[in-house]
Amino acid sequence: MSSKSKVLFDKFIYLLIIANVLAMILESHVSLLELYGDFFYLFEAVSIYIFSLEYLYRIRLAYLDKKIKGVFKYVLSTYGLIDLISILPFFLNQFVTIDGRFLRILRLFRLTRIFKLGRDSNSLKLFIKALNRVRNELKFTLFLSTLTILFSASAIYYLEHETQPEKFSSITESIWWATVSLATVGYGDVYPVTAGGKIFASIISLIGIGIVAIPTGIISASFVQEINEETRRKR
Questions:
Q1: How many other β-carbons are positioned within 10 Å of the β-carbon of residue 222?
Q2: Is the pLDDT of residue 1 over 80?
């Protein structure tokens, strides 16, 4: 395939991805699904076969490049897994008898097709490199966040259990409150009513701002560093 044909093929795939995401949004409307259900299904089937051919085509390119090693590298790569996940639910729905509720969850993976748009995006590649650069730091912040959530859930359980046994029935149930509080979301469905619980919740909410800011700052700094290095390389 010539470079010009490859560009046209990629543009066609990108447009098809966008059309698939739009179709998924439209068919969520019952009125449209009742009128155009057959069209949605046909469009889905045609798109899946095109994406499947694209998947096989990329496997062939990987084989021509580095033989079996290239195939494994592509299949196990981020984009290779996205390519597979984006087509797998359709075939499961056709050939495998499994719980319908599970299939409805799998339909969400259709949205992964949008990530295929970033295959040739330099910005996305820089962002992935930035994440890889600080993966150890991010692992530590994840450990720190988990530890803080468990500590918060345990503390609020002992502070609120006697007053609100139905809402803070166990440390496991309290994890929901700890998570939304540390994430500074605060849905308001569960909240402390005792003086000790309120004081502790105030402290945890302030700590949560820092917990959220740490990984954000780490990723931002790494991304800026990657951009600066890329700019120096181009010069």
A1: 21
A2: no
